[in-house]
Structure formats: C-alpha cells, structure tokens
Design brief:
Layout (H helix, E strand, L loop, with lengths): L1 H32 L6 E2 L1 H6 L4 E4 L3 H6 L6 E2 L19 E4 L4 H12 L5 E4 L2 H7 L4 E3 L2 E3 L1 E3 L13 E3 L1
C-alpha cells in the first residue's frame, strides 16, 4: 500500500513541477517580448476598470473562434485607424492577441494617434483562458480557443484548442 502512495505522490510532484516550469517559461517568454516602456495590465487590473474597451488584434479567423466578451476586432495585418475612429480617445483601451506581441504593436499605434490610456493585456487571451476567464463566439460562451499554431498551443492549458 505504501508503494502506491509513493507512486501517486511522485506523480503529483512531477505534474506540479511541470506546471511550475511552464509558468516560469511563459513568464520568461512574455518578459522577452514586451517593451518595458509600454503599459501592461493584468486580468485583475482589467476587471477593476470601469468600462474598458477591449480590442482584439488577432487575425479574423482567430477572433471568430473566440474572443473576450464585447471585444472589437481590429486585426493586425489589416489594422487601420479607421477601425477605431468611433472610439473615445479618453476611454481606457485594452489590446490583446494570443500572448501580447501583436497587440503591443497596435497599442503603440493607438498611443501615437492620441489615445490616452492604452494597455496590453498581460499574457493575452492565452493567459485569460488559462486563468479560467470566459471567451465567446457569435454563438455565445465557448471553450474553444484558437491556439495560433501547434508550437504556440503549448502555452494553452485550458480550453479546446483550435488550429
């Protein structure tokens, strides 16, 4: 009986170490991608804001699989300022993509265009989903999440990956 307990305990320890390592690796990845001079906002920070506008900077195919509730799709390759012309430049804007690289670039363009309060969502939609936050498609709440590619999909630990 004690050997079974040892095997279970060892297995749990191994799994927790793998999750921690992935978390540390993910944090290192994000630190290497983000510009230290561009503001990043955590999920908790976003939740505490009153009426922020979420802008999804991923490809339309990714957005259509799922997105943060009420997010406006602005794209990345196809982004232009016309897509945000109706937004109040004084309202808080949170940009996001899969992990935050594309969204930071769009966020900088918004700042240059006069938007006063622009933030990049820490960890992007991957971190959002991994933290158990809901995502939506045109049909409503979903557990599907576009993983961008198989190599980037390793950073998703929750949700049903779509490629």
């Amino acid at each position: 009986m004690s050997s079974i307990k040892f095997i279970v305990l060892f297995g749990m320890l191994l799994i927790s170490n793998q999750l921690m390592a992935q978390s540390l690796a993910y944090k290192a990845l994000l630190k290497g991608i983000y510009d230290k001079d561009f503001p990043v906002i955590t999920i908790e920070g976003a939740d505490s804001m009153e009426h922020p506008v979420f802008l999804d900077t991923r490809a339309l195919e990714e957005y259509e699989v799922s997105h943060i509730r009420n997010a406006i799709w602005v794209g990345y390759e196809t982004f232009n300022m016309e897509s945000v012309r109706k937004l109040d430049k004084n309202q808080p804007v949170i940009v996001y993509c899969s992990i935050g690289a594309r969204s930071e670039n769009i966020g900088k363009k918004l700042q240059q265009a006069g938007f006063k309060e622009v933030y990049n969502l820490y960890g992007g939609i991957f971190h959002w989903v991994n933290e158990g936050k809901p995502v939506y498609s045109k049909e409503g709440k979903t557990d599907k999440i576009h993983a961008y590619s198989r190599s980037w999909g390793i950073w998703l630990s929750n949700g049903q990956k779509v490629y």
